[in-house]
Structures are given as structure tokens and as C-alpha cells.
Amino acid sequence: MLNRLHVQNFTVFADATFEFSPGLNVIVGTNGTGKSHVLKLAYAAQVVYAGAPREVPDVYAPTEESTDVLVAVSMLSRLDEVFLPNGLKQLVRRPGSPAAPPVMRATVRASFGKNAIDAIAFAIAGDAPRNNSVLLPEPATIGEPAQRPVFIPAKEMLSLMPSIIGLSDKFTPLLDSTYTDLARALVGPLLKTPPPAIHAVLNSLGQAMQGTIQSENGRFYLLPKHGERLEITLVAEGYRKLGTLAYLLANGTLNPDTTLYWDEPEANLNPALLRELASLLMQLASQGFQIILATHSLFILKELHILAHEQKSTVRYFGLSSQPAEPTQVIQCDNLEQLPDIVALDAELDQSDRFQAVLDQEDAH
Predict the structure, then answer these.
(1) Which CATH architecture has domain 2-149+258-364?
(2) In this model, does residue 56 exceed pLDDT 50?
(3) Nearest to residue 306, comparing CAs of 341, 336, 332, 348?
(4) Among 173, 242, 299, 313, which lies 20 to 30 A Cα-Cα from 359?
């Protein structure tokens, strides 16, 4: 579980702290405020944390120095694969004005585990002679066992299977590693008996998709309740996104010990499916899943707020906003009504007002 993420001078952030809840976390903001950057950075750090060696009672147990070297090398590789920058120094925040002094380095600290004792901290030098370098300002603290997180990107993946895995192994990547990581997670076979905690969620997903997802020789199909199965490329993209979630739950990749990162879950989903998705996310959070998603959909925000009120549960919101040539500011709250004005949301509310005004004018004539 990711507890806390503190970033300084990383991409669009000058100094920002994210205190994540163990349940549902929602990052909201307009384009360019860094929503996807937060998801990718947290995901990369958690992948490295999950893969780092743990202490074992053996003469060959890793030393603190060897663990730090491994963490630094792994972090360098992960950041490069997730962001695909032309050198990691491109991830260091750039001054808003040409007259401003250059930023020398970006620093990141991520805390993990139930007690937030474990942590990975690293820095990226903006003036390093080597284009790629990751520094560790403090030793990594690796203790609790951890499972690899899951990242669902904005573009659906089922229709690209299994070709994307072979292409990524042979050629320069066209997509960042969140896509290939997800592709490999989808390869795993289905559990013989899914955990009871997810039975209701899988049933709800099946009803929403009007069928179940099947895999055969790496290709995916939708088996409708009535009729013959369909190749996944012939299935609506919204169903493919829900099918991705269903298959990750059914093969055990996604479980209560796994953090789920989801970028723009609202993409290609109609309002009816969005309402269903919001309910599914709340169900998963109530079963102990940590979920961190990024959105600029007012519909899904409203739906989550309604469900949280009805179920007397909590959703953690992070509002991202920025002014021209200024770093992104972050506001954290547990109530949507306390979220400050967000441009993307204001635009949608403004459209509703303008639409109603047009209807009123038409009725007047």
C-alpha cells in the first residue's frame, strides 16, 4: 500500500505532498496539471519497492548498500520506461520564466506499508553530466512483503493482445511500460476459485458487460449471455475496459494486497456504465482494495460523492490546479464539496448552465 508521496521540482510540481488513504483516492484536475504524472511516478516507485530484496535470515542476505544500488538502478530503469523521456533530466521541473534560475534537482520520497515505515527516496539531477542518473539521498527502507501494483492506462488493452508483448520485446517501445506491464498481467491464467470478496464485483461486471471475458491462446473474447462469443475487437471499447478489470480480478493479479492505479477510467464509458463503474470502485474499496485514479469527469465525481454519502464511507480527493507559468498546486480533502474550483469541472458546470439557458429561451418562444 502507498501511504505518502512527496515530490519537489518533479515535472509540473514545485513542492507537493499526497497523503493516500487505504481505500479510494481520486486525483482531479484539468489537462496539464500532472494527474498522469502522479500516477506514473507512484506506480514506478511502488514497482521498485515491491521488487526490492527483503531481509532474510541467511548469510547471503542483501546488505543495505547492495539494496540501495539495486533500488537506484531499478528506479532509473522504471522512470525511463514509464515516462519515455529523452533523458531523466527532462523530468526535473523547468522554471516558468527564462529569467528564473535553473532547478538543480528533483526529489521524490514514497512511503509504503500499513505503518508507513518503509520508504524509497531518490533524486534526479538536472545538471548531471550523464543524461540519466538517479541519486539516493537516504538509504531505502525495505521490510514488509509487498505485491506488485497494477496500472490500467487510459487506452484499452484487450484488443492489442497478444501482439503488443512481442512487439515491445523486439522493437523500440511505442507505448510506455504501463501498457506492456498490463499486457503481461493479463496473460496469467484464471483462478480456479476467485476469493469470495470479489464474487459480487465479478457478477456486477458480468451484468454490465452482458457477458464474461474469455482468453484463448492469448486472444480475448466476450461470451455473451445469449449467442456466440465475439472477438474482443468487435466489442464496444467501454466493455473492453470493464473486461480488463474483470479479468485482472479473476486471475488474481488484482487483489486486496495490490494497489490499483487507473488513468481516466471514464474514457469511452457512457453515463450508465460510468455509474456502474463508480459503484464497482466503491465495492472494491470496501473490500480492502487501495485504488488511486485520475479523472476530469464531473459525472464520476458526483456519482462517487453520492455513493460515499449513501454508504457513509470516505473518498480521498486531490484537487490539482495551476496558473500560467506557475507550478501545480495540490489541495487534499475527504469531501467533494470542499474541493476548490477546478477548471475542468467549472467548464462542465458552465455548459450545463448555458444549455439550460438555451432551453429556457426556446420555451419562452
Answers:
(1) 3-Layer(aba) Sandwich (3.40)
(2) no
(3) 336
(4) 299
